[in-house]
């Protein structure tokens, strides 16, 4: 099979007539004479898939735990996923990585995550091989392989395999979807996003320049519309060409937001609490044959920082609010199922459901990022601890707003453990709660179940197995090279034989795991684990050993009974770590280190009127942890001129400078708490300045000044002691002359819409000043931001 990127070659009849050096004829397979009458035409053969090749749809969910769908024990309504399970297969012992970017890289390449370059999330770049956060030039993607086999390839939804510094114009797109084998892409390159006001959407290789989203916008519906449209459009142009659809949902990542009609469906359904939900889900799993009767369920996590209290010990107020958080989560799972239903309906209408392989799974387990008590102020949740104790991590809001577009919420980690029933721990840890997730596969035409086969498979498998399994099922070849380089050999193995015959042994017998110092190693039913809690002992793991054949929930540590097995598996982990470029394990400030050339992003920038919204990360570098000055240059602001001069952020945090009713107004949204200052505008104003003075306590003191036609600048208002926007806030970038996308201040949006400035705006210049926040505080905030960005 030709390599990806090659043009193929063919002979040229009558080469003696072609002068040497006329390279334009190279590879031509016909005859070339001096005239067409003396020549024979030739056309390069079109690459076509084998006759009857199946369509392939991979639906990947973000941060959804093992028990969150009906086929895996959930009470949430998932009729479309039930349909897939009824016709297909459930893998009850499927494993993934503990966070998102590594899982996506492993899924799409078949390479172990560190070998693929993603030992962590695609935001930072510590400068080591296993943490480069870019796909290597010799790493073939599933999309590239399928396109080389004659498939149409489309991706929608979350990507998160490109570093955030490469999301801006002019940066490399080497790890963007279209450069990795997809014919089209629509979605978010980020690790998370708002469901009502995405900070930035990408169509193919370009930013979608959205100023205002429709009133009924919801991102899950949007990406589903695009997925369905891709299928319909292909069939309108080509009746036979098989397609690969990589449908990667932004849900279930926080901030959690649900449509009102879905939320209403689950109102009041979680008053019994997480302990009862866990028990009910586990009973359903045992009844379905996932685990034999008598299998121990993990008790609530009790380790500090991972613990979840008994539901009955919560106050009535806490129970009411915490139940509402889970209602939002359930509504979002329901929305995903509806999305799956729309894809199935489209395939049904085309008569192609039977010959479509559909995979449904999650990138990692349910998360604990909501903390012990959950939050109504999602972005504050991750910075209040390192900053100071008086920061409000959960800005109070009307309980009726939970789940709405106005705030970003996340459930407490007690619901995260319910999500991961019956396992321990969460996303980010190598225990089963972080890495064992649901997996469905359906292909009625090619994998019809035998009589009496329930479709349940208990064999160990891993995320790297998806690509080889799909290629094996479809009977497709893999190119040997990519762009002239020998392609890396895959780590994953096909489990197609296991799907066809439950009596077959698993071909995947061992697997290492590592994230953030947490370690794991599986071999033949034994699992070695270490929870990393002490930065000074990152390379001194405190190993625990579990017999996961009899104890799948990892409840009984038997390391003291089998010290030789611990030693054997620890040595195996070490060998695997070296082979897969896991080392070095980060234990200092390099954990959040970025490339030195990124320092230029903190240089002053002049943004002309009419410039599209700046990318989020570029915008944040101009202001975070530092002094900064914003200089707005206008032609003389006339009486009656009004509107936004500059806006940065959205409902989760930001600031906005605007003119209204003859006054200059500066407002700051500190993770949901809003403060204003204003002053009369007066006559002859040609410039407005905002100066931010940062403090070591991670606050800003703001001064607003006006400049007249004579060039005299006068301070007119102050706003002191405002919480800095750090970590992942502001989530939406800088807009000039309009409050684009998500509103910084809700009452302003409701009064005036996006409030485009009616005067003659020339430019806005940002001048970053010195960083004032101590380095240890910055490092801790950035480490938390890295963890929540995935």
UniProtKB/TrEMBL annotation:
Keywords: Calcium, Hydrolase, Metal-binding. CDD domains: PAS_like. Residues 1-31 are annotated as: Disordered. InterPro entries: Alkaline_phosphatase_core_sf, Sulfatase, Sulfatase_CS, Sulfatase_N. Transmembrane segments: none annotated. One of its GO terms (molecular function) is arylsulfatase activity. Residues 54-475 form the Sulfatase N-terminal domain. The keyword Cytoplasm does not apply. The keyword RNA-binding does not apply. Belongs to the sulfatase family. This is Choline-sulfatase. It comes from Rhodococcus wratislaviensis.
């Amino acid at each position: 099979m030709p390599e990806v990127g090659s043009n193929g070659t063919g002979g040229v009849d009558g080469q003696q007539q072609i002068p040497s050096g006329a390279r334009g004829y190279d590879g031509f397979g016909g005859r070339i004479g001096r005239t067409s009458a003396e020549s024979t035409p030739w056309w390069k053969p079109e690459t076509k898939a084998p006759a009857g090749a199946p369509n392939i749809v991979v639906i990947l969910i973000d941060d959804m735990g093992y028990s969150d769908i009906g086929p895996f024990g959930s009470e949430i309504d998932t009729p479309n996923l039930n349909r897939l399970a009824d016709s297909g297969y459930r893998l009850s012992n499927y494993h993934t990585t503990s966070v998102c970017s590594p899982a996506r890289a492993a899924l799409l390449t078949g390479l172990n995550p560190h070998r693929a370059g993603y030992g962590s999330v695609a935001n930072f770049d510590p400068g080591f091989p296993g943490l480069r956060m870019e796909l290597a030039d010799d790493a073939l993607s599933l999309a590239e392989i399928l396109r080389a086999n004659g498939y149409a390839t489309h991706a929608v939804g979350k990507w998160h395999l490109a570093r955030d510094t490469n999301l801006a114009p002019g940066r490399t797109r080497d790890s963007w979807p279209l450069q990795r084998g997809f014919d089209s892409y629509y979605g978010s390159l980020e690790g998370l996003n708002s469901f009502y006001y995405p900070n930035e959407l990408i169509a193919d290789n370009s930013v979608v320049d959205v100023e205002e989203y429709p009133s009924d916008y919801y991102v899950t519906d949007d990406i589903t519309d695009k997925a369905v449209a891709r299928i319909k459009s292909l069939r309108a142009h080509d009746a036979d060409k098989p397609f690969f659809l990589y449908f990667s949902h932004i849900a279930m990542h926080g901030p959690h937001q649900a449509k009102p009609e879905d939320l209403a469906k689950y109102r009041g359904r979680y008053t019994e609490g997480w302990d009862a939900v866990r028990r009910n889900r586990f009973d359903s799993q045992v009844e379905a044959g996932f685990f034999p009767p008598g299998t121990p369920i993990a008790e609530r996590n009790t380790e500090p920082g991972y613990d979840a209290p008994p539901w009955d010990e919560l106050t009535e107020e806490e129970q009411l609010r915490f139940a509402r958080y889970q209602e939002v989560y359930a509504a979002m799972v329901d929305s995903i199922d509806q999305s799956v239903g729309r894809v199935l309906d489209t395939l049904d209408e085309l008569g192609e459901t039977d010959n479509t392989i559909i995979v449904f799974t999650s990138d990692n387990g349910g998360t604990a990022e909501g903390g012990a008590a959950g939050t109504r102020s999602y972005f504050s949740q991750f910075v209040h601890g390192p900053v100071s104790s008086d920061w409000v991590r959960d800005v109070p809001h009307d309980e009726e707003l939970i789940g709405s577009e106005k705030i970003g919420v996340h459930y407490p980690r007690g619901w995260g453990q319910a999500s991961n029933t019956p396992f321990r721990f969460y996303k980010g840890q190598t225990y089963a709660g972080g890495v064992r997730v649901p997996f469905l596969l359906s292909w009625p035409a090619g994998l019809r179940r035998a009589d009496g086969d329930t479709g349940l498979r208990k064999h160990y498998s891993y995320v790297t197995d998806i690509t080889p399994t799909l290629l094996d099922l479809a009977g497709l070849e893999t190119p040997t090279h990519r762009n002239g380089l020998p392609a890396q050999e895959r780590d994953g193995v096909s489990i197609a034989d296991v799907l066809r015959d439950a009596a077959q042994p698993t071909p995947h017998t061992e697997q290492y795991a590592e994230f953030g110092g947490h370690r794991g190693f599986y071999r033949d039913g034994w699992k070695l684990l270490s929870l990393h809690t002490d930065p000074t002992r990152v390379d001194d793991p405190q190993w625990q050993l579990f017999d996961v054949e009899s104890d799948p929930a990892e409840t009984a540590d038997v390391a003291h009974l089998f010290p030789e097995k611990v030693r054997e598996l620890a040595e195996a982990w070490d060998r695997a770590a070296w082979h897969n470029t896991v080392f070095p394990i980060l234990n200092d400030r390099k954990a959040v280190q970025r490339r030195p050339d990124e320092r230029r992003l903190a240089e002053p920038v002049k943004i002309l009127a009419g410039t599209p919204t700046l990318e989020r990360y570029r915008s944040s570098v101009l202001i975070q942890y530092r002094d900064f000055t914003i200089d707005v240059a206008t032609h003389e602001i006339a009486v009656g001129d009004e509107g936004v001069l500059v806006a940065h952020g959205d409902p989760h945090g930001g600031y906005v400078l605007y003119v209204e009713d003859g006054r200059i107004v500066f407002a700051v949204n500190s993770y949901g708490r809003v403060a204003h200052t204003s002053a009369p505008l007066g006559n002859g104003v040609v410039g407005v300045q905002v100066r931010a003075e940062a403090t070591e306590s991670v606050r800003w003191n703001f001064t607003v000044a006006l400049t007249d036609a004579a060039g005299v600048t006068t301070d007119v208002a102050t706003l002191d002691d405002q919480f800095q926007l750090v970590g992942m806030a502001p989530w939406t970038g800088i807009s000039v002359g309009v409050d684009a996308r998500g509103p910084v201040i809700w009452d302003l949006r409701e009064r005036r819409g996006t409030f485009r400035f009616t005067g003659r705006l020339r430019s806005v210049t940002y001048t970053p000043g010195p960083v004032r926040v101590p380095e240890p505080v910055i490092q801790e905030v950035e480490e938390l931001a890295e963890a929540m960005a995935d």
